[in-house]
Amino acid sequence: MSQSTPTGPLTGVRVIDITTVVLGPFCTQTLGDMGADVIKVETLQGDSTRDIGPGRTPRMGAYFANLNRNKRSLVLDLKKPAAHQALLRLVETADVFVHNMRLGAADRLGLGYKTLAARNPKLIYAAASGFRKGSSLQEAPAYDDLIQGVSGVAALNAGPDGTPRYFPSVLVDKLTGAQLASMIGMALFARERTGQGQEIHLPMMETILSFMLVEHLWAGTLGEPEKGLGYPRMLTPNRRPYATKDGYISVIAHSDQQWRKLFEAMGKPDLIDDPRFATLAARSVHIDAVYATLTEGMTLRTTAEWLPILREADIPCGRANSLQDLFADDYLKETNYFERHRHPQEGDVTIPAIPARFSHTPANIHRPWPTLGQHTREILAEAGYGDAEIDAITMS
């Protein structure tokens, strides 16, 4: 994977990335995938995810790899005045500044919005942290697990015994990172119209709640939460991939017509006339009974036997894959989702493709994930520093 020219819709946009772990790096990698020049500013120790997951060379773990492609790495000790001044000089050339520190920490580092906006009024300053700016919890520490717990996500994912469980993915971090990237794009659009930069703050708590409560606010929408919260179809333990004769299948019907065809495929066409199953409203009330019919019916055939029958009936269905199965999935092979590249340090690697497709400004993977400080001299030279000055900034 050699360096190439970015071609995405954000080509020409410069991003100063003071983020670590998952939320911020997921956001800025999205911007980099879209063509932005993302300068990842790291401490002397580097992002902690560099040490998580398998890698062929030190500080290049798989976790870091999947969050930091299409970026350049600049190492600065921001406690040194010269390094801090170098960062401020870079901010003057930037379109976007992103961090996921606590807001007080950013201010103490001299990297608050007012300070940077004074240097660059057109700057889009984007920050994400656990809780709403200005709230009593503004400075409270937060990670994905914590927000999954306090938001109710862990309770929704409870085990059979009712014990709350964290979703097996850093769901809140990645969702907030994706939302932050989206908000940055909107702020850049507004700046094109007005010429004015602005500050964005996105709290993890409100972000996941806005996502989760779309279906689960339920009677709370009417101001009557005591009458029930949570969409029953999502909460029944019977909503899961169904066992077939030889594996598992995911299948979902929605319309009355789809349910009629599904009951026919299971050899029980009369079920559509059952008052519990005849309408969407009735099925919502009797969802456990509805799914119980599928639990029983899907065991009649193998997965391979079911798929053509269900697809012929235009019923959404697919083999329930394991993580390992994804690499053999016919659809993902067809779309070349797992791209093979050669990394200058890591050798042969596999990279998930960029999901979005643009007809005129195609996004591309144009830089491999960087080694720690790989681009420090290059970036500082672009900012106008000479060799001696760069030595003074980078000497520990």
CATH architecture of the largest domain: 3-Layer(aba) Sandwich
Structural domain tally? 2
Supply the number of helical segments. Answer: 17
Multimeric organization: single chain
Unreliable segments of 5+ consecutive residues:
none
Write the SSE topology.
Blueprint lengths: L13 E5 L4 H11 L3 E6 L19 H4 L5 E5 L5 H12 L3 E4 L3 H6 L4 H7 L4 E6 L14 H8 L1 H4 L14 H24 L3 E6 H13 L15 H4 L6 E2 L4 E4 L4 H10 L14 H6 L1 H11 L5 H10 L4 E3 L10 H5 L3 E6 L3 E6 L23 H7 L4 H8 L2
Parallel strand pairs: 1-2, 1-4, 2-3, 4-5, 5-6
Antiparallel strand pairs: 7-8, 8-9, 10-11
Helix pairs in contact: 1-8, 6-9, 8-9
Q: What would you say this structure looks like, in words?
A:
This protein is α/β, with parallel strands linked by helices and 396 residues long. The chain folds into 2 domains: 14-211 and 334-394, 3-Layer(aba) Sandwich (Rossmann fold), CATH 3.40.50; 242-319, formyl-coa transferase, domain 3, CATH 3.30.1540.10. It is built from 17 helices and 11 strands. The chain has helices spanning 23-33, 62-65, 81-92, 103-108, 113-119, 144-151, 153-156, 171-194, 204-216, 232-235, 256-265, 280-285, 287-297, 303-312, 330-334, 376-382, 387-394, and strands at 14-18, 37-42, 71-75, 96-99, 124-129, 198-203, 242-243, 248-251, 317-319, 338-343, 347-352. The strands form 3 sheets. The chain has a 6-stranded parallel beta sheet, with helices on both faces. Strands 7-8-9 form a 3-stranded antiparallel beta sheet, covered by helices on one side. Strand 1, helix 1 and strand 2 (37-42) form a beta-alpha-beta unit. The relative contact order is 0.15.
